[in-house]
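Sample entry (131 residues):
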Amino acid sequence: MIGMWYKLIDFFIPGRKQDPEIIYIVAPFAEAPAAWMSRVSKYSKHLMRKNSNRIILNVHCSIYNGAYGDDANPEDRASGIRVTTHLLHFLARQENSYLHVLGFSESSKVKEEIEDWRRIAGESRIVMVIE
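Predicted structure, serialized as tokens:
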């Protein structure tokens, strides 16, 4: 049990080993949410198989599953958007973080998230995933 804690400490303390890559995945869940949930899950597993020194954040999956409350409730939705926007802005400032975009819709919240990331971090850490 103690060995597990040392591994966690090594993983999360900057400079103790190589800091993990943080990947924030966005996808247009408003269009066929169950299908996008499946795609994002498969893509996350693919990323972890390629490199286990990663932290994968599927915020839209969390929203879809009600982690921030009922998305149909305007108050819960506003709170969830505020939390996820702060997280996106925080990660955009981290050199070891990347925005991965699965699918794109001009009318979706995804466009706003991409624009926010570009404003803070520029283009260099945005990965547009073509399926």
